[in-house]
Design brief:
With 341 residues, the chain is mainly alpha-helical. It contains twelve helices and three strands. Strands 1-2-3 form a three-stranded antiparallel beta sheet.
Length: 341
């Protein structure tokens, strides 16, 4: 989604741009990607500007409806440019993905010791998890985390607000959340295309830990849960980043979130191994859908009715967080003030 701006007596493309302009001025890595973009009819949004001793403030009013073709054209330009940028680092993606699976070796030995594999007193299962199920769970959880993790999103947004480069989203025809969303979509698309080789290799080497494939209904639910895990991961981190409109430094908040996320998402251990009262609270939080839900689906931990219930809860969190992001962004922009040229 993108917005245009109407300056009184001034063409939007001639509006004063800061040193980090996405239209080509300055040293931004994406500079110039909209310089040759076609003008999109109907892209107007009123912006009230006030200058006092070099201070620039802006208030956004509700945007007018942008024609569908124009919106799709801008989205395609953003997506194509970000994909081209990410393809520069395809070797880094492949090697990095392969090494990210190395911790699974630790999990194999750890749970092998817990289950006493290869000894005379080997344990059959723990709360319905066999040794092979545990290894398979961590492999599927890593796939889910690859969808839901958003490294650098919140901290990058906070830095943009702190150093003033967020002004480019207020004075040029681009929506901040829309641009960041499609930038992440491009990153994930390239990541999985390039990293498919390492994923296939690791899963093939660990094939003996998988009992089999679930039915088509569960596979469809797994795909839906991965898509919504991506949306949840983006929306949660974006909301933390938007807090920087009120508190310029969000590193402490981000650290707390990362610690809670690592445990409450099921990345550390399967959540249904926790005591009943604790799991009863966690199951209504959004974090479990970032890793545990997709992995549990592939292990057959849900019935068809339970899967539908889980997906409805996940979708509800996506909608709620989307609304919170738009409200926080609108209010943050109203109180934002930038100094200098």
């Amino acid at each position: 989604m993108s917005f245009g701006f109407e300056w009184p007596g001034l063409d939007p493309r001639e509006a004063p741009a800061d040193g980090d302009s996405i239209f080509g001025r300055g040293n931004h890595p994406h500079r110039g990607f909209l310089r040759n973009a076609p003008a999109l009819p109907g892209m107007k949004q009123q912006v009230a500007l006030r200058t006092t001793s070099g201070r620039l403030t802006g208030r956004r009013q509700f945007p007018t409806i942008v024609p569908m073709t124009g919106s799709l054209r801008v989205t395609w330009v953003i997506l194509r440019t970000c994909i081209e940028e990410r393809l520069v680092y395809r070797a880094d993606f492949a090697i990095g993905t392969l090494f990210r699976f190395l911790p699974i070796i630790t999990q194999i030995f750890l749970w092998g010791a817990i289950f006493a594999v290869g000894t005379s007193h080997a344990r059959g299962d723990i709360e319905g998890y066999r040794y092979e199920d545990m290894v398979a769970y961590y492999l599927w959880a890593m796939v889910a985390r690859a969808f839901s993790s958003m490294p650098g999103l919140a901290s990058g947004m906070a830095l943009s607000v702190r150093d003033g480069s967020v002004k480019k989203y207020l004075t040029q025809p681009i929506d901040m959340l829309g641009y960041l969303f499609w930038h992440r979509v491009a990153h994930k698309l390239v990541y999985y295309v390039v990293a498919s080789g390492p994923f296939v290799l690791v899963f093939w080497l660990c094939r003996r830990y998988f009992a089999g494939w679930p039915d088509g209904y569960m596979l469809a639910g797994f795909g839906a849960s991965l898509v919504m895990a991506f949306l949840l991961g983006f929306l949660i981190e974006a909301l933390i980043g938007l807090v920087s409109f009120w508190f310029l430094e969000v590193s402490s908040l981000l650290f707390i979130y990362m610690m809670l996320n690592f445990f409450l998402s099921g990345h550390m251990i399967p959540l249904d191994l926790l005591p009943g009262p604790i799991y009863g609270v966690i199951q209504y939080l959004p974090f479990k859908h970032l890793a545990y839900t997709p992995a549990a689906i592939m292990l057959g931990r849900f019935s068809h009715a339970e899967l539908a219930h889980e997906l409805w809860i996940e979708l509800s969190w996506v909608v709620a967080l989307f609304v919170l992001n738009r409200v926080a962004f609108a209010r943050g922009v109203r109180r934002y003030g930038a100094f200098g040229g």
